Amino acid sequence: MSASFDLYPAFSSLADPKLRAENDARARLAECMTDFGQGVDTHLVREAMLKAAIARPYREVLKVALNAGIREAIHRTRESLARNLLTRAPGSSTCQINNEAARMETEAAQDFLANTEGLLERAAESEADAPAGDDPEPIDAAEIGPAERGTLVAIRDNGAAFWKNRAGGFELWVERGSKPRKDMVEWAVSEGYAERDTAADGLLTGQVVTLTDLGHDILAA
After folding, report:
1. From CA 90, how far away is CA 72, in angstroms rounded?
2. Distance between CA 202 and CA 169 in Å, rounded?
3. Fewer CB within 10 Å of terminal CB in the chain, N or C?
4. What pLDDT, on the 0 to 100 scale, is given for residue 1?
5. Is 6:28 a contact under the CB 8 Å cutoff?
């Protein structure tokens, strides 16, 4: 992989644990709700609310990034959350649950702003330090390790596509063979070795991932 700072993988490393935590919390709550032999565990309800609030801005960035790009998506979300924190009044609803949800959203916004602080600046500095010139440096296939090469092979051979789940996020599926890691496929797209059909909605038609000419050149080297 490139030694430069890659914004999409860096953001994904922050987002993925939040999205997994939300899915796990929702699953535990759903399992509890289907057991009619016991009452509703309010701790699980609160946990699902909190994890959903924390994951929401990360999910929003990934959604906006499909059309606007990851840099613009992060910028928009940070501006929106910062503005909301400055203008939002403390929860004053007569419903305790609404007040709790508002408090969680405030904490989630603060968490997101803290975790993404400096990401855009670091990406800009990395680009500024990159060598000048119109022609890209030739690809050195020797720098692509077994995991990266295996990901490119899976994209080429296994029919990889991103499908939208019920929570609004995207999951990676393959038509055949073993499924590569989602973050590795996203890395391949970010590096220009693969491309993702973002014109598809991902719900009725999966966003198919295919190798670019660069990706084929890597495997042919």
Report:
1. 29
2. 10
3. C
4. 38
5. no
Q: How far is CA 157 from CA 68, 173, 179, in A?
A: 29, 13, 11
Residue 13 burial (10 A CB sphere; 0-12, 13-18, 19+)? exposed
CB-count burial class (<10 Å; 0-12, 13-18, 19+) for 37: exposed
**pLDDT for residue 23:** 92
Q: How many CB atoms are closer than 10 A to CB 97?
A: 11
